[in-house]
Amino acid sequence: MNYNALGTSGLNISEVSFGTMSLQGSDAENAALIEKAIDAGINYFDTADLYDQGRNEQSVGKALKGKRKDVIIATKVGNQWRADGSGWDWNPRKEYILSAVEGSLQRLQTDYIDLYQLHGGTLQDPIDETIEAFELLQQQGKIRCYGISSIRPNVIREYVKRSRIVSVMMQYSLLDRRPEEECLELLQQHHICVLARGSVAKGLLVDKPAAPFLNYSAEQVQQAAAAVKALSNAQRGPAQTALRFVLQHPATTSAVVGIRTSKQLADAVDAVKSPSLSMNEMEQLRQALAPNRYQEHR
């Protein structure tokens, strides 16, 4: 496994990391899969208080108990469940963040969170107040660093200007190249790491039947999947090819892969071991489809 710096935090995280949202097993089954991931060199585990109304954090906390010093735990805040459980509302206010972190710490069975992320964000948010909350939690030692999970260029620019975020989690794949327009370069210039999610585009680049995705038609998705398949071989399958496309961008620190099965775990780990894409192969993938652009939140 390769490890990269988590921005300016002083922490190093695995090049491929474990997105836990997909976990659907019992606590014992989840723990067994997470144990396999650790054995394979993965040290970064990403969850959120939103997932399964906090039960995802609980299961991850149980699985990582006793391994705390060997792993980097990331979770997210900002989506507040309604009291009746009917859904959630966006709440980036300082008071709520300072309260919500206590629940995450308890569910994760830890005294501190390595990376605490705002789970979204808009220009209408009280951004300075949100930043104050994260800064205070860092001073208190309840979090080691903070970042945001956002695909919105206008929001990302504000946090780059006004905060000390160390990371931005964003969707990035051959079927979603919107971050290439400006965000990847901007974050790289400011030494803020990119945590890429959705790198296999819900499996559409690997093994799922073609279907419309973002602004692409099913036929265009099929073109992209065919390009990935054409560059795959015995040492590098479609999943590894799709992941390598993302990992080889210099701004990408880690591909956060949603893992639910041992096969998905093996595919993710094999991406690190597989041969790199040549410059010519990278260009072939880029030429498979015209890159998409953000239409909103510019």
Mean pLDDT: 94
Strand pairing plus helix content: what structural class?
alpha/beta
Strand order of the largest sheet: 3-4-5-8-9-10-11-12
**How many distinct beta strands?**
12
> What is the straight-line distance between the termini?
36 Å
Percent helix: 25-40%
Describe the biggest sheet? 8 strands, parallel, barrel
Strand percentage: 15-25%
Oligomer: single chain
So how many helices?
10
Shape: globular
The whole-angstrom Rg is 19 Å
The H-and-E topology, N to C, reads as: EEEHEHEEEHEHEHEHEHHEHH
Low-confidence stretches: none
Could you explain the architecture of this structure?
There is one protein chain. With 298 residues, this protein is an alpha/beta fold. The chain is built from 10 helices and 12 strands. Strands 3-4-5-8-9-10-11-12 form an 8-stranded parallel barrel, surrounded by 5 helices. The protein starts with a strand and ends in a 10-residue tail after the last helix. The mean pLDDT is 94.
Compile the SSE list and pairings:
Blueprint: E1 3-5, E2 12-14, E3 16-19, H1 27-39, E4 44-46, H2 55-64, E5 72-77, E6 79-81, E7 88-90, H3 94-108, E8 113-118, H4 127-139, E9 143-149, H5 153-162, E10 167-171, H6 183-189, E11 193-197, H7 218-230, H8 238-247, E12 252-258, H9 262-273, H10 279-288
Parallel strand pairs: 3-4, 3-12, 4-5, 5-8, 8-9, 9-10, 10-11, 11-12
Antiparallel strand pairs: 1-2, 6-7
Helix pairs in contact: 1-2, 2-3, 3-4, 8-9
